[in-house]
Specification:
This protein has five helices and ten strands; from the N terminus they run E-E-E-E-E-E-H-E-H-E-H-E-H-E-H. The protein has 160 residues and is α/β, with parallel strands linked by helices. The strands form two sheets. Strands 1-2-3-4-5 form a five-stranded antiparallel sheet, with no helix packed on it. It has a five-stranded parallel sheet with strand order 7-6-8-9-10, sandwiched between helices. The N and C termini lie far apart (52 Å).
Amino acid sequence: MCLRISLVLKKNVFLSDDSLIISSSNTKQLFFGNNRYILTGVTENAKLVLLIDDYPQISYFIETSLQLDGYEVMTAESGAEALRKMAENPPNLIVLDIRMPDMDGFTLLKKIRRRSDVPVIACSATPEFSAKALESGANAFLSKPIDLDKLPILIEELCA
């Protein structure tokens, strides 16, 4: 017996047990299976988003979605790595997970605010963190799982 699992992650993102298919206006298609094909390009004036999350699998899906929406994305799995990358290449916006092992998002957000006024979208599966994140300097808060259709809209609003 063969069980096939399919899931719609985003309007044009489909996940099954053996492949991921993504299509948007910026790409023809992106397939995962035994092979990986990315038929996309970041535009010359693309906004740079720093995505900070300690789970590489989550970062990968968000990063891929943002790239398909035309953003350049750099990722960091820890607060220290994020601060280093910010210093090397200042982003236009930061997407920050609140719960991380080495330095939680609230502490990192305070350190970011000492250095920059870059817009920050704080994220967590714990909606109760929303008020504290905004008090700590975040410009917006998104509950996890992140709505990948709303994220680029929020990015554009905060970068306007």
